[in-house]
Amino acid sequence: MAFLLPGGGTQYVGMGSGLYQENDVYRDAVDRCSAVLRPVLGADLRTALFEEVEPGSTAAFLALFVTEYALARTLMEAGVRPDALIGHSLGEYTAACLAGVMEIDEALPVVAERVRLITSSGGATVGVAAAADTVLPLLGEGLSLAAVNSPAACTVAGDTDAVDRLEAELARRDVPFRRLRMPAAAHSHVLDPILESFAGHLRTLTLRPPRIPYVTNVTGDWATAAQATGVGHWVDHTRRTVRFADGIAALWERERPVLVEIGPGDSLTKLARARLDGEDPVTVTTMRHAKARAADGFVFAEALGRLWSAGVDAALPHAPRPPRSAGRVPLPGYAFERHRHWIDAPGARAPQESGPRSRTPAPGGGAGLAPRPHLATAHVAPSTPRERAVAALWEESLGIGGIGVHDNFFDLGGDSMRAVLLVGRLRRQGVLDVPAASLLAAPTVAGLLAAAQDGQDAVAGPAALAPLPLRAEGDRRPLFCVHPGAGVSWRYTGLLPHLGADQPVFGIQAAGLDGTRQPARDAREMVEGCLGLVRSVQPDGPYRLLGWSYGGFVAHAMACALQEQGEEVELLALLDAPLPHAGEHDAGTAERQVAGLLSRVAGLPAGADGPPGVEDVLDRVGEAHRAGSSPVSRDEAASIAAVMRNNLRIAPEFTPGVFRGDALFFSATQDLVPAADARDLSLAAGKADAWRPYVRGAFEDHAVPCGHYDMTEPDPIARIGEVVAKALRPASG
Q1: Does pLDDT of 592 surpass 90?
Q2: E runs forming strands in 625-720
Q3: What are phi and psi of 121, to 5 degrees?
Q4: Which end of the chain is more exposed for a tag (fewer CB within 10 A), N or C?
């Protein structure tokens, strides 16, 4: 998020009066600034703000400066804090105060002297609706290019008679222009006589490096510490051309932020949109235009709502949750006809034929199947007997007719469990014998057949232990999802729709699942093995790590190890992870956890005394698999049980270090028990608080209304995915 702070010309009498009456933070900021300026102006600034003022007077420009500062402080106190700043001319002084370069009490008298010196120099300024390259040849003696605001907007300043002549020439050429409401020629040669005097006033300031990055008008690029603390730079800022268009481009290139205009109207957001034509930036205005009639409080509240809808969660206050029993009434069940109603994928291609979509299945579909939705990929029908056989089973599994050979399994509504069940059906019916990893890595009919043809049906050797590419495509740095206690990473596929198509995601599975290597002997070996898999995909940082439950404290250990090796970890997300060293290993408790997990995987109900023994559960898994209702076979479930036993055995060896960075935590809020009474640490309350001492940076705890073992179900994973996607977005890669 970036704050855009306008320069002179947008001010009007009465701006912010509603906020001054209704908002304590805004009022206190205005009162503080007015007190500082009273001896400078010899009058109360609030008169210029709310009663009367000459449009081009020193008080008028100071009123705008104070309004921007008060409005920004009000937003920041509400939790809306900018990641970057850019000001236009006078607005860069507001940016410098917000960034910590100048103290507001010191800056106000200097800004007042700047305005006084500029206005006393005389001259005029005209805005021109044309590119700077078009206007430059028209600038003769007595004129300077004052600002380049967008590809088709600039301003020219200079001697009044020279500006008059330029306006006559612009009118002759039918080029639109407008004389600005300021009897001065800022950013022009007219100011040369006053620059040394102004430098003396600048030397009274204590200038510090910026704490919030900001773009400077002088270069149209990010201000360095040397520039921000140099008097010569601020003299150049007054005299040289305002490179606002270049500055917006630099701002957008690094962060692609939400653009928030801090001040009256939307002049800067309009200029930004013109410069970023085709990029469609999200823009938010925070104060009404001079001629608008909406109440200030309404405009401010609407701005907070727009910021929240753009992903700035802090823009709206947290609403306390009602008691679980409040307002709940039983609702009767009812029968309904099941029809899928698809929301087409972004970039989806409509069918060639015109008219309304048919409710009959597409070619290749059977009775009762939903039609193929519009997808971003063109439909290519199966053409060989093997393609048709595989596609037919896909259609039965997903309930969709007319599936093409390049249609993505997950775009069609598939998920990891359906993928495993589908692979089992392909194997049982003799169509194709491939592991679930092949379908998850190449989720199309064509990709699956190609993987089988290339001999990847049997996963063996080092490839079996490589990170599972839940989505290998994308040009951003990958997200690595560390396996939970069961050792499998399939459940993370629910994140994919929420992270964007350009975000690669790899799932790290535990050694020992496929029988090619023994499970990790201890915690150190597990961390080293996982890091080896990560580095085989991404040799150098920055790294992005996420882990659910057991995978959370493994991801934390990996992050600490990477930092010890001098690598950067830019994202660490823990999904309801318990502290691993909170208790000793207990074999009996571990067996109950293994049996409970296998029962959940196979969809088996637990009895009043909990799940039966592991061997009994394995037998029932085998029966369910033969009936087609379990995603794993008995042998696969036995491998999961062995790996999970081992994982639980070495869990107490994970003594957390301190991660030097920010962390996201997601807390399940249901089915919890007090930590002292929890036999299963995953169900203990207060897990987030237990982790805080082991994270040196910011620690964000996000409540997720679900149980611990339900965090990768569709609704919880959608909530988690939204937050993770937002955290990934500002990163550069």
Answers
A1: no
A2: 663-668, 699-704
A3: -80, -15
A4: C
Scan for tokens 């910011």, then name that residue. Answer: 698
* Number of C-beta neighbours around residue 206 at 10 A: 9
Task: Write the DSSP assignment of 596-633 as a string of letters.
Answer: HHHHHHHTPPPBTTB---HHHHHHHHHHHHHTT--SS-
pLDDT tens digits for 173-194? 988 888 887 778 999 999 999 9
Q: How far is CA 216 from CA 97, 198, 243, in A?
A: 13, 19, 8
Query: What's the confidence (pLDDT) of residue 634?
Result: 76
Strand segments, DSSP code E, in 69-108 are 84-87
Query: At what angle are helices 523-537 and 550-564 packed, to 10 degrees?
Result: 70
Are residues 44 and 322 in contact, defined by beta-carbon separation less than 8 angstroms? no
Cα(53)–Cα(591) distance, integer angstroms: 79
Alpha-carbon distance of 242 to 220, in angstroms, equals 8
Strand order in the sheet with 283-287: 221-222, 214-216, 84-87, 2-5, 259-264, 283-287
Structure-block tokens of residue 503: 């975000």
Entry pTM: 0.49
Contacts of 301 (CB under 8 A, 6+ apart): none
* 114-118, 343-347, 542-546, 702-706: range with lowest mean pLDDT: 343-347
527: left (phi over 0), alpha (psi -120 to 50) or beta: alpha
Assess contact for 364 and 402: CB atoms under 8 A. Answer: yes
Residue 24 pLDDT class (50, 70, 90 cuts): very high
pLDDT of residue 361: 40
pLDDT of residue 584: 63
- In terms of Cα–Cα distance, which of 726, 659, 672 is closest to 699? 659
CA dihedral 237, 243, 248, 250 (to 10 degrees): -90
Both tokens of 664, joined, read 């996201």
The torsion angles phi and psi of 421, rounded to 5 degrees, stand at: -65, -40
Closest CA to 466 of 508, 433, 425, 501: 508
Question: Is pLDDT of 409 > 50?
Answer: yes
Backbone φ and ψ of 479, nearest 5°: -100, 125
Provide the residue count of the chain. 733
On the 0-12 / 13-18 / 19+ scale of CB atoms within 10 A, 399 is: middle
Note whether 545 and 572 are within 8 A (CB).
yes
Hey, what long-range contacts does 417-423 have (CB within 8 A, 24 or more apart)? 417/490, 417/631, 419/443, 419/490, 419/493, 420/490, 420/631, 420/632, 421/397, 421/628, 421/631, 422/393, 422/394, 422/397
Looking at 93-239, which runs of residues are DSSP E strands? 124-128, 143-150, 153-158, 177-179, 214-216, 221-222
Tokens of 198: 């102004």
> What three-state secondary structure class fits 569?
strand
Residue 545 φ then ψ, to 5°: -125, 145
Looking at residue 460, its pLDDT comes to 35
Q: How far apart are CA 187 and CA 602, in angstroms?
A: 73
- Mode of pairing for the β-strands spanning 214-216 and 84-87: parallel
Band (pLDDT 50/70/90 cuts) for residue 320 is low
- Using CA atoms in the order 606, 607, 609, 614, what is the torsion angle rounded to 10 degrees? -50
Which pLDDT score is estimated for 639?
79
Residues 86 and 248 sit within 8 Å (Cβ to Cβ): yes
Backbone angles phi, psi at 700, to 5 degrees: -100, 120
Amino acid at residue number 332: P
679-680-682-688 Cα dihedral, nearest 10 degrees: 10
